[in-house]
From TrEMBL:
This is non-specific serine/threonine protein kinase. ATP binds at residue 41. SMART domains: S_TKc. Residues 270-281 have a biased composition (Pro residues).
């Protein structure tokens, strides 16, 4: 870059173009204030005041994120004639450049996949959907570290008015999830599916669904072909990440755990809804009018006291009958006087007196 190159935001001197797409171009740039190299992502779309305000809000959210696997956002502009992001410059290439050399070692794919899934989990925790996970958006530094770039670009593009103006769908057809192809709800699971396709391409050396309308529909009728002879953690992770049904797909956090070997649990536990018992309505006591009918006899209790109570009732009933039918007399029968001193010797006499009393 030369000293007469235009300044962006009166601070960043633009250099060579290093990448870009339908919405923006990425340039190497020099921060003339801090004298450091940065990456400048310049959006081509113009927008109105409301769009610029939304762009600024989204850029502040992205600038507030901090993760070792994210390309850091340093600065932004939402002026009427300048719409750009200033980001950390990663010297190196992309995952697409690495994949051009052929299939990568499966263990390396699992390692890089675990790190990228952890980055996605962090982004998702901040309520951001990437929507365009693909090999060219994974930067590989000269030190071998992988970084996820263009996170949140769909929200910035929407703020810039591209989605409203052109009706374009953010995302690359080759790596879209089934719900993106069928115009369904696009959320966090779509990023997990796209990352799964990226990792599958790295380990097989071929694109599973090449671009084009036919390929877009192919994933709706044919599941991805996952090779058999790869490490278990990679195979389990890919199978769970590439479920056609987003409700059955594992989360980015779980994908990171599986691919890194931190766990072997591959399916997201989907808790069944707990049955809600009907509300308990207090029973109101019904006041019944008095009745002259005989009370209903209750069934005998199983309590061990029941036989004793029943016996007591029987004795009471017999006693009542004896009193009712006992002959009326004005004389009160009394026992005869004792037959002698208490002891065994007087027992016959006491029994004779008792028998006489009973016989009347």
């Amino acid at each position: 870059m030369t000293d007469d190159a235009p300044l962006l935001g009166e601070r960043y001197r633009l250099g060579s173009r290093v990448g870009g797409g339908a919405m923006a171009d990425v340039h190497r740039a020099m921060d003339t204030r801090l004298q450091r190299l940065v990456a400048a992502k310049v959006f081509r779309s113009a927008t109105d005041e409301l769009g610029r305000k939304r762009f600024a809000e989204e850029a502040r959210i992205l600038a507030g994120l901090s993760h070792p696997g994210l390309v850091t956002v340093h600065d932004f502009s939402a002026d009427a004639d300048e719409l750009f992001l200033i980001m950390e410059l990663i010297e190196g290439g992309t995952l697409a450049d690495v994949a051009e050399w052929g299939p990568m070692p499966p263990e390396d794919v699992a390692d890089i996949g675990g790190k990228l899934a952890d980055v996605l989990a962090y982004v998702h925790d901040n309520d951001i959907v990437h929507r365009d996970v693909k090999p060219t958006n994974v930067l590989v530094g000269n030190d071998g570290r992988a970084y996820l770039a263009d996170f949140g670009v769909s929200r910035l593009a929407d703020a810039a008015g591209r989605l409203t103006d052109s009706g374009m769908v953010v995302g690359t057809t080759t790596y879209m999830a089934p719900e993106q192809v069928s115009a369904g709800d696009v959320g966090f699971p779509a990023d997990v599916y796209s990352l799964g396709l990226v990792l599958l391409e790295c380990v097989t050396g071929r694109v599973e669904y090449p671009g084009g309308p036919d390929a877009a529909v192919a994933r709706l009728v044919r599941p991805p072909q996952i090779p058999q002879g790869i490490p278990g953690r990679l195979r389990r992770g890919l199978m769970a990440m590439l479920c056609a049904d987003p409700a059955r797909r594992i989360s980015a956090e779980q994908a990171g755990d599986v691919l890194s070997g931190r766990t072997t649990e591959v399916m997201a536990p989907v808790p069944a809804p707990m049955p809600v018992p009907p509300p308990r309505i207090p029973q109101q006591r019904v006041q019944r009018p008095p009745t002259t009918s005989m009370p209903i006899q209750q069934p005998p209790s199983r309590s061990p006291v029941a036989p004793v109570a029943a016996g007591a009732l029987a004795v009471a009933a017999v006693a009542a009958l004896a009193v009712a039918f006992w002959p009326e007399s004005n004389e009160i029968d009394v026992l005869p006087p004792v037959s002698g001193a208490p002891g065994v010797e007087r027992l016959p006499a006491d029994l004779e007196n008792l028998e006489r009393l009973v016989r009347g």
